[in-house]
Amino acid sequence: MDQKIIQIAKEWAENPYFLGSDRKEIADLLSDSSKNENELNERFHRDLEFGTGGLRAPMGMGRNRMNKYNVRRATQALANNVIKHFGTGSAVVSYDSRNHSKEFAMEVAGVFAANGIKAYLFNSLTPTPMLSFAVRYYNAKCGVMITASHNPPIYNGFKAFWNDGAQVVPPVDKEIITSYNTLTNWNDVKHMDFDEAIKAGLASWTDEKVDNAFYKVIEQKVIQDMPLCQAHGHKLGVVYTALHGSAEIPCELTAKRVGLKNFYSIPEQAKPNGNFPTVKSPNPEDPKALAMAVDYMMKNKLDIVFGTDPDGDRLGVALNHHGEAKFLNGNQIGALMIYYIFKFKSEKKLLPENALVIKSIVTSPIQNAIVEHFGGTVLDTLTGFKWMAGLIRDLEEQKSKYNFIFASEESFGYMPHNESRDKDGVSSMALMSEVALYFKMKGMTLIDALDEIYREFGFYFESLVSNDYEGIQGAQKIQRIMDYFRNYPETHFAGEEIVEKEDYEESKSINLKTKATKNISLPKSNVLSFTFASGNKLFLRPSGTEPKIKFYTMVRETSGELSEKKKNASNRVNVIETKIKEICERA
Predict the structure, then answer these.
(1) pLDDT tens, position by position, 239-291
(2) Count of structural domains, the chain
(3) Within this chain, do residues 302 and 440 fall inside the same structural domain, yes or no?
(4) Beta strands in 364-494 (DSSP E)
(5) 175 and 238: one domain?
């Protein structure tokens, strides 16, 4: 057993700053250190890293775990930088349904209050997009959302937002990280009890005014055709599941306000529960998470299923396609939304000049085809809505010509308006309901609508391989895989000739035929991509929030009937994914 790990653990077990019950958790592990060697290593081999968006880790005592002390430390780092940039101000705090989320949120509010920053704490669990909206609503200087998104139940996290309602980006994120890393003395972390903060006027609960303002934005800026929804919304049979998360009430209220009267929520998954007892993973990207809702939809011959994750920022969609259950992926959902918005606005002469769509680099280029057809522009960012919202802020500060319309990424995240500066499962549910209703009134399902898009713009097909590698050894394996691809020795991959390699960490792209290089004008990130002679692409990157590495394959087929294009694209992707699997198994 590493004696340095033992020493650090003993310091935690003996530190009077921590509650006795928390110190005992470490002391119990130390009582049989040989048996608990792996657990002690995982908890103490490093400080919990404050990444570019905040914290995320399994809960428990230890410096590499989510606990109220590391939450206080992260909040102090954020508060230090609010004071540095603004002198004073306010902050908004919210939390989802995860275990200890409310407790952690009250700790956050207590640290802000102790630093003279008034904290507005939501009076009930609230989705991330409402937190983002509230930062702007209150003209606050920052915000914190306690959530670990769709991670397993043992996780929780801390998302840091800046005064524009977006997650922090450079240079502010680096300043907060530096402040966090230099807070090595717990006595430098200020804190006061939440009730004392309320008495001192340094904390308060939010009221329904901010909630109603959020719903009003959906009615005015998300729904394209309110008369359609109000007159015919009852004709769309909607099944919804909150997956035990925070979006149950917001989604139900939104549905009611926009006219979706035939709206059924799965009761077994409606009640918030941080153990997520009915699903293996509360991730609406996973068809298994939507199983109960899909079964209800098919049994009752309804039209569509929506599912949101614990913090309500992602939206999953399944539908009844002429008696067969079908699941949409994130690229398809985004394409349908964009096609409908641009088609509607164009037909009604409402599309502004220089209409702008923002997407991540690993999101389908079908968006470019659709948007450019209607005269708009698509701009790419790194993966993550922090980068998309950061681009919006930059364009606003530059007083650019662009008029924002929509932002999305393939991992089931969509931003249909910019009053919230993060992905928004609540607004997206409202918009997708309208899209489904519009096509239903034409006798079409969303699968029929996708085929209409493919016939007009070409068949685009994307796949995602996501490999989980937990712990220290997992992180080392992910690094070996990235190193192998970064130094890939061959000219072909899975039968595809590589013509260009892009290394976003080096900010360089090289043409393998001409050896010419060019700069990549995006922030440095541990991302690689291969562009093939066929025009197909492969991206890979470690996740920034989970212990996994992701591979994105993008294929386009242009010849033959649509059925033939689908078959050929599927076959091509299967070959590429087989090669990826072989490499990962060897690494």
Answers:
(1) 999 999 999 999 999 999 999 999 999 999 999 999 999 999 999 999 999 99
(2) 4
(3) yes
(4) 377-381, 403-409, 413-415, 459-468, 492-493
(5) no
